[in-house]
Amino acid sequence: MRSGGAVDGSGDEAAAGSPGVARSDDAGDAVPTWRSSFPAMGTRVDIIGWGGDGMAIVNAVVGVVARHEDMWSVFRPSSEVSRLNAAVRDAAIGDGASRCGADSAHGCPGLVVSEETDRLLCDALALAEATGGAFNPLIGPLVAAWDVKAMRAAYVAGAPLPPAPAADSVEAALRASSWGLLSRVGDLRWAMGVPCESVGGVDVASPRLDLGGIAKGYTADACRDLAVSMGARGVLVSVGTSSVSVFGPRADGSSWRAGLRDPQGGPTSVAGVVELPAGGMSSLSTSGDNLGPLGRVGVGCAAERAAEHAAGAASDRRARETPRETPGGGGRIFDHHIIDPRTGYPAHAGVRQVSVVASSGVLAEALSTALLVDPSIDVPDVVARWARVTGAPASAKVVGLVRARA
Questions:
Q1: Neighbour-count burial of 158, counting CB atoms closer than 10 A to its CB (0-12 exposed, 13-18 middle, 19+ buried)
Q2: Which of 330, 327, 337, 342 has its CA nearest to residue 374?
Q3: N or C: which end of the chain has fewer CB within 10 A?
Q4: Among residues of the chain, what percentage have pLDDT more than 70?
């Protein structure tokens, strides 16, 4: 889950309200501002700015968002991401000889994608490697194994949490979630491998690509850049309130401001405010869990299993299989429903929310996601790796980190 919100100088959400008028510091004349809000990408896109033809800019931005959703939505069968997932499913249901190898996609025909999708896939792999897998665009099988949607629904309803999956099921999902299964097999051509072996009799699921972890940041940056190219002198774009990209100042000369929601407070509680651009960095991403600790589990809990898995422990899985309990029981607490893609179990790093500003929305998104499961990640090292891959200067900084209360 993502959290955060862009705010204008009055403290309101950036896209709330109707078009208004702001004052310029350069002259006493009124400077018109324009703004719009529309649903897309399973969330809401807000844009506010000044300069240029506001109506033309907004219409162009709507077109960009629609195109990106057509290419990357996992809910649209015709999207390039869905077609790539369908291709690997087709390979998985074939006989063993037709399957792709677990460590590569050689032998698979793959899918030719657009240049933008090719770039985003390259970015996803580079950031997965740079973060040691803490960011992972193939985490889908693990999310399905834990039935995260049902977990969150039960928590909200105050009902007992669904039972934890068996360790063999987690291990099978972990193998299917390896980001190393995704590879570029030709010019603009991508494919995913399919692990062939089962785990304790549990079949390994088909890998499932989802670029939602970085697509919103990419889209926010693309919309901002388009607005600037069309004459905007200042603009803020917010995709889902968690991915914010800006250029220039507000019409009155002040900085854009983004409020960071307090995950441990009420719906309108703010943990802090970030002025943008910050140190030349114009993209902000906030990743977090707004639900709080999900509950407790007994001895041999999932949190302990995650730690054992990360350390390479090889103990009897059956002895460690215990169901989750509702809040108030004994044992250790799940920090939240966020799954650590490196271990296959809910993260237990003690972090509720992370906000990152960066020179790139994609970089900011991947870092905020990765730091949520592992706050010890070396941010300068990830930035340096990203700069080498992209060939462009890069920077990033953590501007907010909320830890779970003891």
A1: exposed
A2: 342
A3: C
A4: 75
